[in-house]
Amino acid sequence: YDKAIQICSIxxxxxxxxxxxxxxxxxxxxxxNDLGDYRKALRHHEQALQMRRSIYGQTxxxxxxxxxxxxxxxxxxxxxxxxxxxxxHEESLQMYRSIYGQxxAHPRISGSVSNIxxxxxxLGDYRKAISYFTKALQIxxxxxxxxxxxxx
Length: 152
Hints:
78% of the residues lie in helices and 0% in strands. It is mainly alpha-helical.
């Protein structure tokens, strides 16, 4: 990914913000997360988030911005900062709801709801966690059906 970012920087210019570069930064963050280097993961996910906000607008709802918010939240969970994770996942959830609809069943909405539940679980507020997990389950059942086998 680092080589791809270098190539994009040469192609688009060093100081250019471009969706391809933001995607590569996001992918690097995910790879560092998988390797357990959460500081590097956070740095790359935050750079992707900053670039995406620069591209699409600081206050505009966009799926790529919501994804970056989610990924920063996931990294905070991995780092043990669950309250920070909740903030990012709640912002991601609100953005997904503004994009897909407040009451629309969508996999990204379910994922954000579940991630908030996971953070509350880690904080020891099991009732709040159960509430969020139940909401995510309801969304998934709406999406995939009651008896349908699905990995989510």
